[in-house]
Design goal:
Serine Threonine Protein Phosphatase 5, Tetratricopeptide repeat; 0% strand; 11 helices; 2 domains; mainly alpha; 185 residues
């Protein structure tokens, strides 16, 4: 725990390499063979490492840490938390332009969230698929994902405006509208 907290302090001070080294030291001190293994601590360490790797634009390292994070979320948290943790893999796959992996993760999480009854969360994870469906020329699938996202995500007010902080979606929506017009022409 001390090495983890030390690593967090170093990261907060802008000393990422030293912070990561402290995280690696913390990982080496956790005994996963013991019955009282602190999986919550492991989850936190890997989660923090994934943030550092994301901020440093190191998507392969981010995927490595997120896979471990997801594994420990599964051991310590609810199924919904586990699915949302899995969805975090979309960001580094986008950076790597591994679009098939983006679809695999997003659509898998979408189906699992529907299965557990979280329609709002399921709608939210469809957002990146809208753009990539359009990029592939699959406008029918893009329309399907867009309609679900806009109707069920809970991020729209009564006037049809997206929630504050989510305005980047207008880029996707604009691209969708432009693609729809070009399809007609």
């Amino acid at each position: 725990m001390a090495y983890y907290m030390y690593g967090c302090s170093l990261i907060d001070l802008g000393q990422s390499p030293e912070g990561l080294q402290a995280y690696y030291t913390a990982l080496s001190k956790v005994d996963t063979t013991k019955a009282d293994c602190n999986y919550e601590l492991l989850k936190n360490i890997y989660g923090q490492m994934s943030l550092v790797f994301h901020n440093q634009n190191l998507p392969q390292d981010e995927i490595w840490s997120l896979n471990h994070y997801v594994e420990n979320v599964k051991k310590t948290s609810s199924e919904k938390d586990y699915l949302l943790a899995k969805y975090e893999l979309v960001a580094p796959y986008i950076l790597l332009n591994e679009i098939d992996s983006v679809f695999y993760v997003a659509l898998g999480v979408y189906e699992d969230l529907i299965r557990i009854g979280d329609n709002q969360g399921a709608a939210r994870v469809l957002c990146p698929t809208i753009y990539y469906y359009m990029e592939r020329g699959e406008m029918d699938k893009a329309t399907w994902a867009k309609e679900i996202f806009e109707k069920e995500s809970g991020w729209y007010d009564q006037n049809g405006n997206i929630a504050s902080g989510r305005e980047s979606y207008y880029y996707v929506k604009g691209f969708y509208e432009l693609s729809a017009i070009l399809t007609i022409i």
